[in-house]
């Protein structure tokens, strides 16, 4: 009962929010009509209107049982709009309404991972896994969050669990390569990346990741070959240019290293992430 009251308060708050002109002038007057309008808005890539349409639908029928799924959709739209706090509230409302449905937990977990609240993400993925122990996606994502949370043992356990019911899983191999890289077991990591790249020769991200392992192993020539090929395949990834800047700096190619670092920052790499390299280049 308390959960329902809290959700009704959230929905009620939508009614006092001043609506944009396009919503105020709409002649739509039904719950289903607003939902259809939200889909139309998404087709037009108008996320702001889609968000308002879903709010209008729930304001008309705050007790409609379909609102749980609408809150999931609303949260996803709010993430696209950069309204991450609003998205968290929407996903939490969805969880309260959907009970045994794990979709809302998975989506909220992915939001928490995006904003680097890894323990909260782990907790949500754990709920999903408790209800479906062979949910490969949830196990893989929890492993990555555990890895980011410096829990390599927990990450390995999740990936080994995937192997038990899906021995051919590419995700478990990719995850284990990341674990080996984090643990400094570079030879094991390279071996896994070799197999993954052989199976996915057009994957620029795998080449970038193997290049990083080569860099850690001080195999700068091999690292340069991989990162050059990765950038040829995708020239818009800031991490690739940042890695190539580090490789070139280590090789003594100072001018080209500076160019790559500047390009990485132009493409969106936060300067804080490159602080150490920037300091070296002064």
Q: What's the structural blueprint in terms of helices and strands?
A:
Layout: H1 2-16, H2 21-24, H3 31-43, H4 47-60, H5 67-80, H6 84-98, H7 103-114, H8 118-131, H9 136-148, H10 152-165, H11 170-183, H12 186-199, H13 204-216, H14 220-233, H15 238-251, H16 254-266, H17 275-281
Helix pairs in contact: 1-4, 3-4, 4-5, 5-6, 5-7, 6-7, 7-8, 8-9, 9-10, 9-11, 10-11, 11-12, 12-13, 13-14, 14-15, 15-16
Write up what this structure looks like.
- Helices cover 77% and strands 0% of the residues.
- The protein is built from 17 helices and no strands.
- The chain is globular, with a radius of gyration of 23 Å.
State the gist of this model.
The protein has 282 residues and is mostly helical. It contains 17 helices and no strands. It is 77% helix and 0% strand.
Looking at this protein, list some descriptive labels.
single chain; 282 residues; mainly alpha
Shape: globular
- The helix/strand class is mainly alpha
Seen as an oligomer or otherwise, the chain set is single chain
Largest sheet: none
What is the residue-mean pLDDT, rounded to a whole number? Answer: 92
How many β-strands, per DSSP?
0
Strand content: under 5%
Q: Secondary-structure element sequence?
A: HHHHHHHHHHHHHHHHH
Distance linking N and C termini: 61 Å
Q: Taking Cα atoms only, what radius of gyration do you get, to the nearest Å?
A: 23 Å
- Point out poorly predicted stretches: 15-25
